[in-house]
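Exercise 7. Given the components listed, write out the predicted structure of the assembled complex. Treat all entries as one system.
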Amino acid sequence: MKAENLLLILTVAAMLAGVYCAFLYAPTESSMGEVQRIFYFHVPSAWVSFLGIFVVFLSSAIFLSTGKRIWDIRASAAAEIGALFCTLVLISGPLWAKPVWGIYWTWDARLTSSFVLWLIYLGYLLLRRLLESPQQRARLSAVFGIMGAIDVPIVYMSNRWWRTQHPSPVLGGGEGSGLEPSMLLTLMVCLAAFTLLFFYLWRLRCRLDLSSDRLEALERHLLTRIQEER
Amino acid sequence: MNWLNQIGAILWKDILNEYRTKDALTSMLLFGLLVILTFHFAFEPDSLEIEKFGPGLLWMTFVFAGILGLNRAFSSERENDALQALLLAPVNWGAIFLGKMLANLLFILVAETAIFFCFAVFFNLSLGLRLGWLVLITFLGTLGFASVGTLLAAVTMNTRMSDVMLPLLLLPVVLPAVIGAVEATSAAFTTPVGETLGFWLRFLIAFDVIFITVPLLLFDYVLEE
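Answer.
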């Protein structure tokens, strides 16, 4: 419990610092204006969505080798949170792209990989929902989680190579070419805040599943006791 | 029985099964013909447009026809609990995977060949020397697709709505193979053959190596009861 409270305090503090930095500390970007501030939430969301699939991969692999239920819970919790942040990326990205690039969407490698990652997350969650037996759900979703996670970097690379074969219609607009120090600091603070938020939500989500497991066990136990007494 | 014999036995069983029912091949082939028919009326393409859109259209047809075939791969095993008998057979489960994968690969390749032949006839495609390249591209692209597809067909066969779930899981995963195959086919369609062909062929080989190894490692967990 103590560790969780500490994590909560750290997360809240980092989130507040992130909001302060993004809106007050970081200077207004000269060519894009205020809208560029979405960057401090967009990039950390993207980071968390990729962190999520990595955690799904690790948890699924550990589940398949040990068969411990907790790792199945960890994988599914990470997938749910990853899917949430991936959705946020796909919403905040176009909101930023429209005023800056003039279009909502372009088939750039990063955009396409985020989109495919989102499809993999949703496929994973849908698969879990459609499998009825818990053992089967754990095993089969772990198999798909591993396949999906391995696929993500390959999708990214194939799109990058595909782009180099076709010249890009959108030039610049990216954040790649060096950041102003105060902007970089803001980004770092926000990345740390979102990472802490991910792990806090992850812990909460896992605990929820463990509690419902315990509740189910208790119900079964009570039911057999009642039947015995009759 | 050694490994190769086991794989061969499973492959032969599936070929015999398909020869007697002809379920997968008929549905894949008819689907392909319908796509060609619809394509003609949707776009009325001239020869330049065929060069531009043909590779993409062909691969979309291959992918969706392939899914029709893959859906049959394990649903036929579920009838009369044939899968249980297969699991009880004294064979390595890796051999079951490879046998089923090769059977799927074979059926999809046969359907693709027929669809491609019809496509070439209906749209007056002159192929000449490029046929060799196209055979190679189709084989490499279909190999990875069949391998991922066989694993995921085994994963989805236990779900409700399994025939809808398979494409939902399969398409995002095989997207790189589709990109590679379309780009390579485009390069092979242009005269002279495009210089990017070699790159995308190597890419397809890398994809195949990864996505045959990983499903082979994971397949045991799918069948475990």
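Discussion: Residues 68 and 99 of chain B are 19 Å apart (CA to CA). Chain B has a mean pLDDT of 88.
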